[in-house]
Design a protein that fits this description.
Length: about 150
């Protein structure tokens, strides 16, 4: 289901016309979201509302931005759980990771040396993927070698 379809379904569920939703959005924010813009989202002519527009429409419809985007609470929980597990794993290896105020980067603190390494979001995702791949390969080899049976 698209964002536009969700907007339409929630608008109808709340017994609102496109015009009423537009007016409600204007009451919530100083920014005007016209009736025709809402219609274009619902018809799929406009596909991806800007973040601030998404927030206003979601608020007017009484839902979270995530719900309007079709992201379930379970998906958010799973993502946070995977990220937390990765951070905990790094911590067990002697690293601490935190957001940095320096150029939208992450800082990895190496506990034994007191050194910091700054990496971007993309580098952090690559590190997480490479770490998972390495663990998966080692587990596969371990299970394949049947050493766990001994």
């Amino acid at each position: 289901m698209t964002i536009g379809e969700r907007i339409r379904n929630l608008r109808i569920k709340n017994n609102l016309t496109q015009k009423e939703l537009s007016e409600l959005c204007c009451k919530i924010s100083e920014r005007k979201i016209s009736e025709s813009t809402i219609r274009k989202y619902e018809l799929g002519i406009l596909k991806n509302p800007k973040q601030d527009t998404l927030q206003i429409i979601a608020s007017a419809l009484g839902v979270s931005e995530y719900e309007l985007q079709g992201i379930s609470a379970q998906e958010i929980t799973n993502s946070l759980s995977a990220t937390t597990s990765f951070y905990n794993y790094l911590y067990s290896l002697g690293y601490e990771i935190a957001e940095s105020n320096y150029n939208d980067k992450w800082v990895i603190h190496v506990k034994d040396t007191s050194q910091d390494v700054y990496i971007s979001d993309e580098e952090l995702k690559n590190l997480q993927a490479a770490t998972k791949e390495t663990i998966d390969l080692r587990l596969f080899k371990y299970l394949h070698d049947k050493k766990h049976d001994q």
